Automatic annotation (TrEMBL):
InterPro entries with a match to the protein in the record: Asp_de-COase-like_dom_sf, MoPterin_dinucl-bd_dom, Mopterin_OxRdtase, Mopterin_OxRdtase_4Fe-4S_dom, Prok_molybdopt-oxidoreductase
Keywords: 4Fe-4S, Iron, Iron-sulfur, Metal-binding, Oxidoreductase
Protein name according to UniProt: Molydopterin dinucleotide-binding region
GO molecular function, one term: molybdopterin cofactor binding
Keyword field contains Lipid metabolism: no
Example of a GO biological process term: cellular respiration
Source superkingdom: Bacteria
GO cellular component: membrane
Positions in coiled-coil regions: none
Domain 4Fe-4S Mo/W bis-MGD-type: start-end pairs: 3-59
Amino acid sequence: MSEYTAIRTCPLCEATCGLEIDVKDGVAVKVRGDKEDVFSKGYLCPKGAALHELHNDPDRLRRPLVKKNGEFVEVSWQEAFEAVEAGLLPLVEKYGRDAVGAYLGNPCVHTMAGILALRPMLKAIGSKNMFSASTVDQIPKQVSSGLMFGSVANVALPDIERTHFLLILGANPLESNGSLATAPNWPGRLRAIKDRGGRLIVVDPIKTRTAELAHEHLAVKPGGDAFLLMAMIRVLFEENLVDLGGLDDVLNGVEEIRALCQPFAPEAVSQRTGLEPDQIRKLTRELAAAESAVVYGRMGTCTVPFGALTSWLVDVVNALTGNLDKPGGAMFATPAHAPKKTKAGGKGWSLGRWKSRVKGLHEVMGELPVCTLCDEMETPGDGQIRALITVASNPVIALPNAARMEKCLENLDFMVSVDWYVTASTRHADVILPPTGPLSTGQYDFGFYGLSVHNIANYSPPVIPKPEDELDKWEILYKLAMIFSGQGAAGDPAAMDEFIISMMVGGACKREGSPLFGKQDEILQALSKYKGMERMLDFMLRTGCHGEGFGLNPKGLSLKTLLDNPHGLDLGHLEPRLPGILKTPSAKVELAPEVLVKDVERLEQALASPQDDMVLVGRRHIRTNNSWLPNIPSLLKGPPRSVLQVNPQDADRLGLKQGGMAEIESRVGKLTVPVEITENLRQGVVSLPHGWGHDLPGVRMKAARAYGGINSNFLTDDQAFDPVSNNSVLNGIPVEVRALD
Ligand SMILES: Nc1nc2c(c(=O)[nH]1)N[C@H]1C(S)=C(S)[C@@H](COP(=O)(O)OP(=O)(O)OC[C@H]3O[C@@H](n4cnc5c(=O)[nH]c(N)nc54)[C@H](O)[C@@H]3O)O[C@H]1N2
Ligand SMILES: Nc1nc2c(c(=O)[nH]1)N[C@H]1C(S)=C(S)[C@@H](COP(=O)(O)OP(=O)(O)OC[C@H]3O[C@@H](n4cnc5c(=O)[nH]c(N)nc54)[C@H](O)[C@@H]3O)O[C@H]1N2
Ligand code: SF4
Ligand SMILES: [Mo]
């Protein structure tokens, strides 16, 4: 009998908890929190505790599937890649590269391959039809960060470890464990703010568990945050509470903001926010008076009609209260894999380098928005998407207007999915390519150490060796890249790996003045111990801000340092980084970027526009993760979750009964849903979680099928989006609700 315990960072959400995993005879049998983890210190949630169940799930695909006569058949990898080549290349030849679209899902950000190996594939495809879950999620924050700080990577994070005052808008970290603010154990960290005498205020239409923990809960109307923040800014100016915290020379545009906020007096926004003018004034004064304070916004501020504007105003309030780049305020991470930037200034960041074919929606961060993905699949003509590649994504369950999406996938000429399961979406695929399981691949959170509220570096090697007949995700993505670049289905991903690392190292060694100049061979030799993603990580760590620099800084970091420290490295609290990290042409923070300033007109017009009687918002639960864990029995325990929550007054008015059924209808769809009546919702708001609805013909997930649930995205509207970021509106959907007998 072989038994061992492995240490592994959890890949399931942004919190990056350390796990201790018992393995017996090659099978993971138990997961605990790693008490020695420098960041999570033993904390874990029910999802992390079930990671081995995901790895062991018999429904998780181990072999590629190819559809033959309408049925999936297990085939060899070679046959699967040949099927991809035979299905896709003729379409490219006949219709051009834009005929192939790609939709990349959320789990891509949670794997090393998703961060490093997708780009070569996308480059090889060469289509402008690239989409990702970013445009149903955080892209508004990246737009505002790009415009203000010159780079979409410069996202200001709430320093929750030191703050005296945390104002949370539209986030529920007690269920989600945080987003764009990586930190294990949000419950503990929020309680710690209270324990040290700090204040916690939550603005959310629902009295969530996070709101319950707070000193105060302000039940804002969905979509109200931009108005609230504008009013707070006006109060700051009006009451002379503006304090730039010594950043006067770094902040451009303060006077413009003073002018912009004028129409938004607390009285003027009261109707839109559902908050009393006095509540807004008191909140602003408290925030301004706190020793340190930070506003933090998430899904409820992004997936709304003013997503980019709201995300921007969050940082404006932080700047105007002297809390930008200050301990306890909004700060920037210093990820170990990135070089330290010390000289402010750069080319800046812009959007709109190209436009979508059908609706002319602008590009953001190299992608087009998912709100127009169906348009691009449905509308005939040059550049129509005829084939789709989905990578770790579930468009039918995750994207607005699910009924339309279903039809579009059915009508594709060809579909390839890189996924672990036959899901609501991948059942439409012609080929499914499953990467090896979550415990058989290494983990370093490229995506999240740059968003972490404490500087951390941690690498975990595979817990269970990858079975010989399985492929890592990077191998699959490189194979696809090779097919598109004409090297054929027989191409060896190891050759592509060699090519990419030599390009990467070569590029760095070509820059005159760089300490690496001319040392390409030596450096490739020094990296030769590792392959694939690990080799790239080693290179990035060594050349990163704490790196050993290939001998220049012998005490610095490399992959070996992380391997020697399986519980992670604590690289300290967030540090002030302005103006060094700024990449704006002015080398200053642009508090009033033109694109966003222009959108204020739309906000002003919306002050007077009519409001909907009843709107739908989503919600998350600690035992779910979007649609990717519905087949794990231990996570399905507890009361039914896919239910419509309604406020008691609304229930009375509509004749809805606890446990009864209701019909809910939006512009795009109609669903029948069980009702749960709860005081936690504000009147006029109903809530249905996303991520359910797996009981469809062909789905191969036994537990998920038995659980079923309702896909709330049959109600969300693909025509509702924020015109600046093009992010979909998923919260505040106008609906009608009727009782059913
Ligand atoms: N109504 C509504 N809709 C929403 C949201 C909402 O709040 N309300 N939230 C939105 C948000 S924030 C997001 S991020 C999106 C997510 O949208 P998507 O990313 O499209 O969907 P997921 O549900 O995350 O599905 C992920 C798929 O990837 C597979 N998978 C998981 N891990 C891996 C892996 O390592 N490799 C591979 N190859 N496959 C893997 C899973 O089996 C699953 O099929 O949903 C959005 N949709
Ligand atoms: N357990 C679990 N954890 C997860 C996920 C999951 O599905 N389950 N998904 C992961 C992903 S992909 C993401 S992006 C993150 C998201 O992380 P969070 O943003 O923390 O998660 P949500 O639960 O969507 O929180 C959004 C809150 O906004 C509120 N809200 C809705 N509309 C408005 C509004 O107009 N204004 C305000 N102020 N509030 C509003 C909702 O009621 C909800 O409480 O969570 C991640 N973690
Ligand atoms: S909070 Fe997130 S990272 Fe931590 S155990 Fe749960 S799912 Fe994993
Ligand atoms: Mo997300």
